[in-house]
Amino acid sequence: MRTFLRGALVLALAATAEAMVVRPAPNFGLEGTPKASSLRSFRGQAVVLVITRSARGKDFRRQVYRLKEMYGQFATEKVVFVAAIAEGPADVPSDIPFVLAANPAQVAADYGVAGKFAIAVIGVDGNLDLITSKVIPAARVKDAIFNNYETQSAERKDLNF
């Protein structure tokens, strides 16, 4: 009887795990966007969040340069780019259209960023799929977007795991 109950519990937990968010991204407000008021407004779209002290900072400029390498692919997939800029002018020197976070200092705190730079990838399911304080290649951002929890779960179903 105990074995049966244990097995039933494992199956029930496995079924509910499919619908769970693994690591939910902290929500935050956005500035000047008529269609979207917060991160949750972009549910169903991948979001690349760049947190920086200054848009003129070396790490921020290097990261934007790397993202531009694959921006065409990101645009095709409707990836949203958000910048949380704590100091200085809020204009982003880039061809990539960035949406601005409303309270950059709070965004940095909510994401546990204590330094001057970080980049995060939030999947279409609202999961925080990647966060790092290092400048990373655009290909790594792309991998985080297209190999997220939701995609991997769907592929496992297709393979009957």
Task: Describe the fold and architecture.
With 161 residues, this protein is of the alpha/beta class. It has one domain: 3-Layer(aba) Sandwich (Glutaredoxin). The protein is 37% helix and 20% strand. It has 6 helices and 6 strands, in the order αββααββαββαα. The protein has a 6-stranded mixed beta sheet with strand order 1-4-3-2-5-6, sandwiched between helices. A hairpin with a 5-residue loop joins strand 5 and strand 6. The radius of gyration is 18 Å and the shape is globular.
Measured distance between first and last alpha carbons: 26 Å
- Give me the count of strands: 6
**Overall pLDDT level:** 82
**What CATH architecture label applies?**
3-Layer(aba) Sandwich
Classified in CATH, the superfamily is: Glutaredoxin
> What characterizes the major β-sheet?
6 strands, mixed
Helical run tally: 6
Q: Give the helix/strand class.
A: alpha/beta
The coarse overall form would be globular
In helices, the fraction of residues equals 25-40%
Any idea what the radius of gyration is? 18 Å
The stretches of 5 or more residues where confidence is low (pLDDT under 50) are 4-20
SSE string, helices as H and strands as E: HEEHHEEHEEHH
Placed side by side, the strands forming the largest sheet appear as: 1-4-3-2-5-6
The third-level CATH topology is Glutaredoxin
CATH class group: Alpha Beta
Counting structural domains, the number is 1
Strand content: 15-25%
Task: Explain the layout of strands and helices.
Elements: H1 2-17, E1 30-31, E2 47-54, H2 58-68, H3 71-76, E3 80-87, E4 98-101, H4 104-110, E5 117-122, E6 128-132, H5 138-146, H6 149-158
